[in-house]
Design a protein that fits this description.
The protein is α/β, with parallel strands linked by helices and about 450 residues long. About 35% of the residues lie in helices and about 30% in strands.
Length: about 450
């Protein structure tokens, strides 16, 4: 259960010989790390810029549906929330690939393929956060980092002050700032956060079709991060659950993408299109996709209808980001702040949880003083190559998934008939076969 607790209220529980750890961002990575450390007898300080838990979990910009690979199972076990996790999710067994016309190309049993490693389950982001927070998860809401100095241990925090009502929502403004010292600072509040930019120095983007990397100001100077802009995005909404809650359906179209992902009691729908088509609107684009499909299953029909009827569905720009260095002094990046994933491989949340587990190992052995430098560098050395392997896989899949020409779509459909699901998932299976060693 999420409990609102100010920074100072959380710091009161830190013993004099215990390291002071600040975790910025109460998303999947931040909450997983905080709860692991708390389970090991530590008292990290967890903050989030959201005004309250309702906005933190309920905001559609924070994500919808997730498919979690078995790499999260050790985390679930350590947090002793397996029963709640199983209750809040559905087991995914089948993957159904459709041609760009809607015809079924093949059906594979992912459950059998992954059974040796653990569970593959669908869950909504809000339900996962409920599971991870358990019975006690203090968070300082409306709190942001406005400055990092020295080796990152000196942090300037601002607590938002809530003002008058405007357009049905509460206004927030920066309140009084406070300067505090921490032994380690974990930035886990996303790839587009201001806090992350205090560490990386700012975003640098490269188009997927491009070959060079440019800095944030457009020059050729080396940048502290790289990014891919697929020039695609998509509308996200919910459809009603059906009788096939163990199955994921995807249509890799010619100028569109339709993904259908089950969770407990609902189906998450993602309808992708090139950025240039976004002004058409979700309703008209869904109708256009419907008219181009020659095979229409009841499930596809229901999901397109859900997009057509959704009121102002969130449009998710498909961009990613990768920091060239995670740790700097006593500050480290975690989750999307280190590597913000494209959703193409469905592994970003799983890698964030796995990384939180590895970082928890290093921080658990931390004492007060300069030891954080080595601990954070060890974490990066242990986990970075694994995260970047999964990140590369997501980028590679994006090049195949987001095609615009009918000829390319036809050739891709033919290839689907011969490429085994084991071959397609080889990079993921390699990660599962050699999990990081845990303390």
């Amino acid at each position: 259960m999420i409990i609102a607790a100010t920074v100072n209220e959380q710091l009161k529980h830190v013993d004099s010989d215990e390291p002071r750890i600040l975790i910025v961002g109460a998303g999947i990575a931040g909450i997983t790390l905080a709860q692991l450390l708390r389970g090991r007898g530590m008292h990290p300080t967890l903050i989030d810029r959201s005004a309250d838990s309702g906005r933190m979990i309920g905001d559609n910009r924070a994500g919808y549906m997730l498919a979690l690979m078995p790499m999260v199972d050790p985390i679930i076990e350590e947090l002793e929330c397996r029963e709640a996790y199983l209750e809040a999710s559905v087991g995914i067994d089948r993957y159904i690939a459709h041609a760009h016309t809607g015809k079924v190309l093949r059906q594979d049993h992912l459950g059998d393929l992954l059974a040796d490693f653990g569970d593959y389950r669908g869950i909504s982001r809000s339900a996962l956060l409920d599971v991870l927070t358990g019975s006690d998860c203090p968070i300082a809401f409306g709190t942001t980092v406005t400055g990092l100095s020295g080796d990152g241990a000196t942090v300037t925090l601002a607590q938002a002050s809530v003002g008058r009502q405007r357009f049905g929502e509460q206004e927030q403004s920066r309140g009084q700032e406070e300067v505090l010292e921490f032994d380690a600072v974990v930035i886990a509040d996303g790839m587009n956060s201001r806090t992350r930019r205090l560490v990386t120095g700012g975003p640098a983007a490269t188009a997927m079709s491009g070959s060079g990397k440019t800095s944030a100001d457009g020059s050729d100077k080396p940048s502290s991060e790289s990014a891919v802009d697929t020039t695609w995005g998509g509308w996200v909404c919910w459809a009603e659950a059906d009788d096939d809650q163990d199955a994921v359906d995807e249509i890799w179209g010619d100028g569109f993408f339709l993904g259908i992902y089950p969770v407990k009691g609902a189906i998450g729908v993602f309808l992708g299109c090139p950025d240039a088509r976004q002004p058409l609107g979700s309703r008209r684009f869904a109708a256009e996709v419907r008219s181009r499909l020659t095979v229409m299953t009841p499930r596809i029909d229901a999901c397109l209808t859900a997009v057509e009827k959704a009121e102002a569905p969130f449009f998710w720009p498909l961009r990613d980001s990768r920091a060239q260095r995670w740790s700097r002094g006593r500050t480290v990046l975690l989750g999307d702040a280190a590597a913000g994933f494209l959703p193409t491989a469905g592994i970003g949340a799983g890698m964030a949880m796995e990384s939180a587990g590895v970082l928890a190992d290093e921080l658990s052995a931390l004492t007060t003083g300069p030891g954080a430098f080595a601990a954070l560098e060890r974490f990066e050395a242990r986990q970075r190559s694994r995260v970047e392997a999964a990140h590369d896989n997501s980028r590679s899949l994006a090049r195949l998934m987001f095609g615009r020409s009918g000829l390319f779509a036809f050739a891709r459909d033919q290839a689907f008939r011969f490429i085994s699901i084991r071959t397609a998932l080889k990079p993921i299976l390699q990660l599962l076969e050699s999990p990081p060693k845990r303390m």
